[in-house]
Design a protein that fits this description.
globular; mainly alpha
Length: about 675
């Protein structure tokens, strides 16, 4: 939930990207508004999303290789084109490229060498399959399961709770100990996105489960594993048992649930798994204390490793060994993987072009090498200066909103001001780049490169243990179209790739920049003060700095917003979950309010010009609405409502209904569909 302004990359392997449509041309209109994409026949007060985006939604076909599409995906496509050119230059430069740049070229060209990959068949996967086949007892099982653990989840920054390894690991400072790094251990093991997919009895979910079982069988068959139907049934049965002990998506958001366990307490607190063998194989010996995010689930999963048949566990490991490697194996594996994760789970008819997948894998493996090249070419220093100034304005506006709160006591206000005053803002790229010199990239070894890169990242994360905390650490690459709030670091990252049109145009109208990029900046700042962020203090420590009465008022405002979002029902059998999306919705509303204040302050008391037939305030809100332009396939929308902390785009655009200024700007009247009486408008901050 927190942090990410968008959630489209969660299943990046299957979802994002790939068409030739271009971004709305803002350069033609200095206002930055896409007039042609609006539907002015609709009253803004009835459906603000349709008013700002209706023509675009009607006239833009969903690209066949996408599950969702919109302004975010369009910019991500543009960025991917910029990025592939940089990687290709490195590949073409041969020995003339720097050692780091050579690695990006070799990683990418190894992935693009389809003929080479076909000719090897499943040979590159063989060592991992043999390792599983050789498991003779529960100790071997613990050892292999441990060796597969990676740093692949992130419960607070990216809010990524999904891993098909038995557990996921995240490494950062302690929840109540900001001076030391800890290993966080999360539940895992599922191939479907969430426990709901195993336990729900709706026809949609039952159908997905049946197709998942067929998919597992198909993967076994491709890899030459016999008795595939029976094995697939065993894998699904085992994962269903795992799902039964898993926490729900909403429970995973509860920062009161994680519990520190000493390493030598694991066997007593979660009996079943051979923990010493696991810890040794996972390279976790240096973690004397682990913060167990899902204590109940970790206990339950450990128990299953002792009670379920060893053969079922071996089938499960075999299947996930194949699945995790599939993107780097011959075409038949790639297509079968897409057939399930792309078509069935997200409703996407076509696999996106190989080069796009290659760019994303290269960007994941060598993120800051690609990022450095990207920034040098595409992120001018003057943009950094302008965005920094805009961030400062919005931080100030947020501080002024705290001062003006009538319900908050001076005591709590002082703590809130201290927190907003110490937020560390990263714009464009990190101050220090990561060192990739120990990562070995071998030309022609596509799967080996990907496996080594994951292990390299895992070891890099573990190496943070017993080292000083780096509050300047980045959690997104510069070439990522997104932004993130880091509650434990009390810090924000705004990657270079989102700081370009249509979100931010250094030459464009202030109203548009504040409504679009300004609201995203405000959103990330506000995450420090949403229902979860507000539980962390200025040092990033989980600590209550609220007076009881202030906290009660704040919670009541959150409940009102949750209720507003519970009322959105995109399908008769599925509504938005107001609590699951509460952090994001608080961040949207509070972020929009502080961006609006900052925009008004930037006018210095003078009225803004009218342009394209709109006042400055109208352009601010239209800019906001158009920044949420997007559409989803039905399966994808259902997946997101079930697993995502973000509400669907149209409801995020409609959050304007909580701002008094929006009513004035468009003359919104009682009786219109989005109208809220002044007392029902939620002003959290
Ligand atoms: Zn967010």
């Amino acid at each position: 939930m927190r942090k990410t302004a968008f959630a489209l990359l969660v299943f990046a392997v299957v979802a994002a990207s790939g068409c030739n449509a271009s971004a709305p041309s803002n350069s033609a209109a200095a206002t930055g508004i896409d007039l042609a994409g609006m539907d002015k026949s609709i009253a803004p007060g009835d459906d603000f999303n349709a008013y700002t985006n209706g023509e675009w939604i009607k006239s833009t076909p969903m690209p066949p290789d996408k599950a969702s599409y919109g302004v975010f995906a369009i910019l991500a496509d543009e960025t991917r084109k910029q990025t592939v050119a940089l990687i290709q230059e490195s590949a073409d430069a041969g020995p003339k490229a720097s050692e780091e740049a050579r690695k990006t070229g070799d990683f990418y060209s190894s992935f693009m060498d389809e003929a080479g990959i076909e000719s090897k068949g499943i040979a590159p996967l063989k060592p991992r399959l043999d390792e599983v086949a050789a498991i003779k007892d529960r100790r071997d099982l613990a050892r292999v399961v441990g060796s597969r653990i990676r740093a692949d989840v992130d419960p607070l920054n990216a809010t990524n709770f999904e891993t098909d390894n038995l557990f996921g690991v995240w490494v950062t400072q302690g929840l109540t100990d900001p001076d030391h790094s800890y290993v966080y251990l999360l539940q895992g093991g599922l191939g479907l996105p969430d426990r709901e997919y195993y336990l729900s009895t709706t026809p949609h979910m039952v159908e997905i489960r049946n197709k998942y079982r067929d998919h597992i069988a198909a993967m076994f068959k491709l890899a030459g594993v016999k008795d595939e139907a029976a094995r697939a049934a065993r894998v699904l049965a085992l994962e269903t048992k795992m799902a039964e002990v898993h926490a729900t998506r909403l429970e995973s958001e509860d920062v009161k649930m994680p519990t520190p366990w000493k390493q030598d307490e694991l066997s007593a607190k979660a009996p079943g798994l051979d923990w010493p063998a696991f810890i040794d194989a996972a390279g976790l010996k240096a973690a004397e204390v682990l913060i167990v995010w899902h204590p109940h689930a970790v206990t339950g999963l450990s128990d299953l490793t002792a009670k379920e048949p060893l053969e079922a566990w071996k089938d499960w490991l075999t299947y996930h060994s194949i699945e995790q490697a599939a993107a780097f194996l011959p075409k038949a594996f790639v297509e079968e993987r897409f057939n399930f994760y792309g078509k069935t789970l997200s409703g996407t008819p076509e696999l996106r072009p190989r080069w796009q997948r290659g760019v994303d894998f290269t960007s994941a493996a060598l993120g800051e090498v690609v990022g450095k090249l990207y920034v040098e070419r595409h992120f001018p220093p003057e943009t950094k200066v302008k965005v920094q100034a805009m961030v400062d304005d919005i931080v100030k506006a947020f501080g002024a909103r705290i001062d003006a709160l009538t319900w908050m006591t001076p005591e709590t206000k002082a703590k809130a001001k201290a927190k907003v005053g110490t937020i560390k803002v990263g714009v464009g790229y990190p101050d220090r780049w990561q060192d990739y010199s120990s990562l070995e990239i071998v030309k022609g070894d596509a799967l080996g490169n990907a496996q080594r890169a994951e292990l390299f990242e895992y070891r890099r994360q573990l190496a943070k243990l017993h080292q000083p905390i780096d509050r300047g650490e980045w959690w997104m690459t510069p070439q990522t179209v997104n932004a993130v709030n880091l509650p434990l670091q009390n810090a924000l990252n705004f990657p270079a790739a989102i700081l370009q049109p249509p979100y931010f145009d250094p030459a464009a109208d202030a109203a548009h920049n504040y409504g679009s990029m300004g609201a995203i900046i405000g959103h990330e700042i506000s995450h420090s003060f949403d229902d979860m962020g507000s539980q962390f203090d200025a040092q990033g420590r989980l600590a209550n700095w609220w007076t009881p009465a202030d906290l009660e008022h704040f919670k009541a405002a959150g409940e009102a917003l949750a209720k507003q979002f519970d009322g959105y029902r995109p399908f008769p059998d599925l509504a938005v979950n107001g609590h699951q999306t509460l952090s994001e919705n608080i961040a949207d509303v509070a972020g929009l309010m502080s961006a609006y204040d900052a925009y008004r302050l930037s006018l210095k008391g003078k009225p803004d010009r009218t342009a394209d037939g709109f006042t400055g305030d109208q352009r601010f809100f239209i800019g906001y609405g158009q920044s949420w332009r997007g559409k989803n396939r039905e399966a994808e929308l259902r997946r997101r409502i079930t697993t995502d902390g973000h509400a669907p785009e149209e409801y995020r655009a409609d959050s304007v209904r909580n701002l008094d200024g929006w009513y004035d700007a468009f003359g919104v009247m009682p009786g219109q569909k989005l109208y809220l009486a002044p007392a029902d408008r939620v002003h959290v901050w």
